[in-house]
Amino acid sequence: MASAARKSSASPKAPPLPILRTISRIRDGLSAFQRRLVPGHIALLDISTIGYLTQAVAAAAELGIADALADGPKQPPELARALNVDEAALRRLMRFLISFDVFGQRGDGGYRLTRVSESLRGDAEVSLRDLFLLLGSDLHRKHWSGLADCVRTGHWRWPEVEGMPFFEYAEAHPEVGQVFDAAMTSVSTLAVEPLQAAYDFGRYGSIVDIGGGRGSLLVDILRRHPSMRGTIFEMPRIAEGLAEELSAPGLTGRLTVESGDFFEAVPKGGDAYLLKHIIHDWSDEAAERILRTVRASMETEARLLIIDIVLPEHRRPHMGKLLDLEMLINTDGGRERTQTEFGNLLSRSGFTLTKVTPTAAPDSVIEAHPAW
After folding, report:
1. Is the pLDDT of residue 282 over 70?
2. How far, in whole angstroms, is CA 370 from its chain's centroid?
3. Is residue 306 part of a domain?
4. Which strand ranges, in their side-by-side order, compose the sheet holding 303-309?
């Protein structure tokens, strides 16, 4: 069975949502207080470390430092030999990362994993290694460097810079597609346990997961509900060989894989249709096309489940506000949306928004039913 599916089923329990919200408010309040307390130029300089830290963590992911420390602490010379890197340069990288508790250092000088760097291991229950490989890549930095141009024009730069839209580029450059697919799988795995804790997927007899990737969420749902059936609907590049990859005891005859274009048609007969991290990739016009295609395959009693970030109305930091800029840079009109914007989009597409269920992850479950 796929490694993503194994990890998702064993994901650690998420803290209760009220506790996470309280911690976030306290953290954001303290950060805001610090920024107001120090001179403005010092606060701005402190903000500059965020980009450097991301690149340093990405370098650690690329070098495999967390994997090398998985069997226990190592002295700097030993770790440098294991990684085949320059010891002095490694010490400088680790000194920076240790200051943010990404790694730890014992009294005898040995480097060790922390709770943070455990998630950089490739075999961790919830691994973000592949996500950081994407965030630290030359291609990702290249396009974020064009943010000012995107703001000037209101449009993305992918076709202009690369000669084709992103998903076509990923098809034409398999090495890019592989990095992107692996990063999205790691993000999907991160959200599995919070989604399961917040929403009752067991109320449905069958689920069609549209754009379901490598199947981490749907497989986890099926394993928890033995009588349920599921279908992963993906583009041919991802769907090829996926059924065999996901074959495992208990899933035979219950999980199918189909390929196609969700702008044209999707499988019929599902009790629920799942769109996880799909709608935010598209403009309102394109999203309406997708939703109307889904609606055409749904029975009146079926339900639509959109799993995406719902942008909050507050002015505090939120992951969705960052990802909204990611959508501006890398998609043709994609964006994160508020609850009101989701409601309007669904209404124009033949749905009525039923409820929004927040989770301990940044995602929410937006449930809707056919309006006609």
Report:
1. yes
2. 28
3. yes
4. 255-259, 229-234, 206-210, 272-276, 303-309, 363-370, 351-358
Residue 360 lies in domain: 190-370
Buried b (16+ CB within 10 A) or exposed e, 226-261: eebbbbbbbeeebbeebeebbeeeebeebbebeeee
The model's pLDDT over 106-128, given as tens digits with 9 standing for 90+, comes to: 999 999 999 999 999 999 888 89
Of the candidates 293, 286, 362, 295, the residue with the CA atom closest to the CA atom of residue 322: 362
User: Could you tell me the pTM of the whole model?
Assistant: 0.83
- Tens of pLDDT, residue by residue over 181-207, are 888 877 777 788 889 999 999 999 999
Write the single-letter amino acid at 210. I
How many of the other CB atoms lie within 10 Å of CB of 358? 17
Q: Report yes or no: 288 and 345 within 8 Å, Cβ to Cβ.
A: yes
Distance CA 35, CA 31 (A): 6
Question: If phi over 0 gives left and psi between -120 and 50 gives alpha, with beta otherwise, what is residue 129?
Answer: alpha
**Which residues form the catalytic set?**
280
Q: Provide the domain count of the chain.
A: 1
pLDDT tens for 245-273 read 787 777 888 898 999 999 999 999 999 99
Residue 37 covered by a domain: no
> Could you tell me the CATH number of the domain that includes residue 224?
3.40.50.150
